[in-house]
Amino acid sequence: MNLSDAASDEERVGPEPAGHDDKDWTVVIANGCPECSFIGAGPSQLAGLIRESIEFWSDALRRPGATERLHPTVWSPLEYACHLTDLSHVFHERIDAILTQETPALANFDGEQAAIDGRYHERGVDQVIEAYADAAEAVAVQFLRVAPDQWDRKGRRSDGMVFTLSTLGTYYAHELVHHEFDVRRLQGRVQRWHSGRRHLAPLEGSE
User: Fold this and answer.
1) Mean pLDDT value across residues 73-80
2) CA-to-CA distance for 69 and 79, rounded, in angstroms?
């Protein structure tokens, strides 16, 4: 194999897969998350939290090094944003299914495989910022349109876990908060939650 062939193979293979996470994160619905200090998000908080996350990712992806991995098996900020974009599409479909069907089966999502198949590392910053904003805003609008008597509607994941729209919203909110926390750590900032409000320390030298 010559050098050009080797380079082509490397481009096709892409970066090393991120470490597999097999933890059952549904525990955060009832217990919160000790790692990122997420303590829950009620129906009235969801749209605002989602829209705040759009602002966060627009800023985070424009910071130096946002497209680079600091460790071979840890996603870059860009890849985290791609993950949340795809995840938002999945949750949009789940919410729609719960609103229109009686206890529907909720499709699975393999985030690690999606990152490989979608070649997250090759995407452009502006493209990802726009894609996440569109996907997240669509979910925010969905939650705003949920009627008070619809929050207890249910859907069932393939492992048997039953979500109401309310607990599904909490689960999605934790995904946003936790991955924001992941990226703040990568970029030298810290995020903590208390009584539904985020407290963060800005990156040294930033405004």
Assistant:
1) 95
2) 9
